[in-house]
Amino acid sequence: MLKHGARPKAWHGTLNRQVQVLISALVLSLLVIIFLYFNGGEKHYSSFQLPKQKWNSFDSLIKFHPAMEFRNGTDVIWQIPDSAKAALFLAHGCDGRASNFWDKSLNCPKCVGLPEERLLVLHALARKFAVITISSAGRCWTLGKEKLIVKDIIRWWVVRNKLEKLPLVALGASSGGYFVSSLATNLRFSSITLMIAEGVFDRVDITEDYPPTLFVHMPKDIHRQRKISEYLKILRDKGIDVADIECMEFPLSPNFLADRIPDLDLTVSAKLFELFQNKGFIDKKGYMVDDGRETRWREALRETNSLSLVMNLVPHIQEELNVAFAYHEMTSLQSERIFDWFETHMSIKSPLYSH
Ligand SMILES: *[C@@H]1O[C@H](CO)[C@@H](O)[C@H](O)[C@H]1NC(C)=O
Q: Of all atoms in ligand 1, which is nearest to the CA of residue 71?
C-alpha cells in the first residue's frame, strides 16, 4: 500500500500519460458511482408494458393448497413452499378478504381467487416466499388494536411454522398499505411495499430502522401521487432506502380478460371487448375511458343475454378494468420488480423483535 503522499516512479516514466488518463477515468467512474449511490433514492421506474403474465402461467410450477385457521376472530390463510427463503404478509384493501388471494379449492371452498391477488401469491410462492393473508376485522383496516392482533397472528404463524430465521416482508394495497406502513413500527419487517397508498407517515415515527419502502403507485391518481413524492423525500431524508414504481394505463384487447381471469374463455372475452367498444366504455385504441367502478358495464352485461353467465365474475372483471385504467387497484403486473426489491432488502432480523 502506498502511504499518503508517496508516489511510485512510474508516475514520472513514459507511462505517465496513460496512467494519468486511466486514473482520471477511474476517478470519474467513482464519482459517477458515488453520485448514483447517494442519489440512490431516485430509484424510480415507470411501466407502460402490457401484461405478459397469463392467469395460468404458473400452472406447471405452483399449485394452490393453502392452510387456514380462524384466529383472534378473523380468517388466516397461508401457504409455505418447500425451502422458503422469506415470509410475506399480504394486506388487502377496503372490502378485501384473505380469501381473495387464493383460488377456490377443496382446501378453501370459499376462496375467490381475484386475478391480481392470486397472481401476486403465485409469484411469491414461485420465488419461495411463504405467504400469509389475514382478513381485516371491518371493511377496512384500523390502526389501533388491530395492529396488535395482526402482530400476534403473524408471531403465532411464524413460530408454529418455524420461520423465525427467515426475513419477514409485507405488501399492503390501499387501506392495507396504510396498515402496513404503521404496522412496520410494531413488527420488524426487512422491507415493505406500499401499493396505491402513500402510507400514514404523518402519524408514523420514522426512526432509522424503519424498513426500506417501495411505493407501487398509479400516477393518474394525482392527489396520491403528490403525497407519495412528499413521503419519498421525507423517508429518503431520514436515511430510509426508498424506491417507487409507477403503473400506467394500457389498452384492452379481445383476449385480455381471458388471459387474466381463470374460467373466462376467449369467446366471452372477445364478446365483452366488443360490447365495451360498442358502448363507448373503451376508446378506439382500447383504453378504458373511465375507472371500472364508474363505468356502467355491469348494466350493459345484464342486458346482454349471452353474457349473463359471467355475472359471477363481476369482481374479477372489474378488477382487470381498473388495472387497465390504472387509477386505483391492486396490481400484480409489477411483481418481478416487487420481489426483486424484497430479495435485495432481506437483512435477517427476527420478526419477533418489536420496538
Ligand atoms: C390473539 O389470540 C391469542 C390466542 O387466543 C391470545 O393469546 C392473544 O392475546 C390474542 N391477541 C389479541 C391482541 O387479542
A: 2
Q: Kindly report the protein residue whose alpha carbon is nearest to atom 11 of ligand 1.
A: 149
Q: Which residue has the higher pLDDT, 30 or 197?
A: 197
In single-letter form, the type of residue at position 335 comes to S
Find, among 246, 264, 263, 247, the residue nearest to 255 by Cα.
264
Query: What ligand 1 atom has the least distance to the C-alpha of 148?
Result: 13
> What is the distance in A from the centroid of ligand 1 to the CA of 72?
6
Q: Which is higher by pLDDT, 193 or 294?
A: 193
CA distance 89 to 154: 8
Q: What mean pLDDT is reported for the chain?
A: 90
Spell out the domains of the chain, with CATH numbers in brackets. 67-248+330-343 (3.40.50.1820), 256-325 (no CATH)
Rounded to the nearest whole angstrom, what is the distance from the C-alpha of residue 198 to the centroid of ligand 1?
30
pLDDT of amino acid 302: 87
Higher pLDDT, 80 or 4: 80
To test ligand 1's pocket by mutation, which of 148, 151, 152 has the most ligand atoms within 8 angstroms of CB?
Answer: 152
The alpha carbon of residue 197 and the mean position of all alpha carbons in its chain are separated, in whole angstroms, by 11
Average pLDDT over residues 278-291: 94
**Nearest one of 86, 78, 72 to 102, comparing CA atoms:** 78
